[in-house]
Amino acid sequence: MIISIQYCHDIEAAVTNARAFLRLRQHTTFSQFLWSFVDGQPQISQWQDMRQVPTATEASRAMSQALKQQGFVFAGPVICYAFMQSAGLVWDHLADCPRWSWCRSVDYRKLWPDSARRE
Predict the structure, then answer these.
(1) For 108, which of 6, 37, 44, 53 is 20 to 30 Å away at the CA?
(2) Per-residue confidence (pLDDT) for residue 101, from 0 to 100
(3) Is 118 inside any structural domain?
(4) How much is the pTM?
(5) Helix (H) or strand (E) holding 67
(6) Ranges under pLDDT 70 in the chain
(7) Residue 117, in any domain of the structure
(8) Which residues constitute the domain of residue 34?
(9) CATH code at 81?
């Protein structure tokens, strides 16, 4: 079996990130770490057009920098912003999307009890 160099780098990155995750968990939960970049609550945007949605923000740049300081790799600001969107830290529904009004009315603390916890 031939293993490509790219595949080996992916495995090394996964191991590196797993080790960084375990080190981080010695100080805080990963959930609290992530929510700290959005002050413990989802950031709800009011975009009118998809072209307004950024590929990275100050929060994703800060998350990327903090992850790298913790030893994570392949954690650039664009990847972090995409993760923030998929994990619910940032809600980028367009203002005319039916889901946008739900985002404005939902009690996010019931969805993510750890989001607003402070230590």
Answers:
(1) 53
(2) 76
(3) no
(4) 0.81
(5) helix 58-69
(6) 1-6, 108, 110-119
(7) no
(8) 5-111
(9) 1.10.340.30
Q: How far apart are CA 22 and CA 30, in angstroms?
A: 9
What percentage of the chain's residues is helix, strand, coil (to nearest 5)? 55, 5, 40
Residue 52 in any domain: the answer is: yes
How many distinct structural domains can be found in the chain?
A: 1
* CA-angle at 54, arms to 115 and 70, nearest 5°: 50
Residue 43 dihedral angles phi and psi, to the nearest 5° = -90, 115
Q: At 70, give phi and psi (nearest 5°).
A: -80, -5
Radius of gyration of the chain (CA): 17
Query: Nearest-CA neighbor of 118 among 39, 50, 64?
Result: 39
CB contact set of 56 (below 8 Å; sequence gap of 6+): 77, 78, 80, 81
Let me know if residue 119 belongs to a domain.
Answer: no
Phi, psi of 28, deg, nearest 5: -160, 170
Tokens of 21: 């995750």
Residue 103, pLDDT score: 74
Name beta bridge partners: 43.
90
- pLDDT for position 118: 44
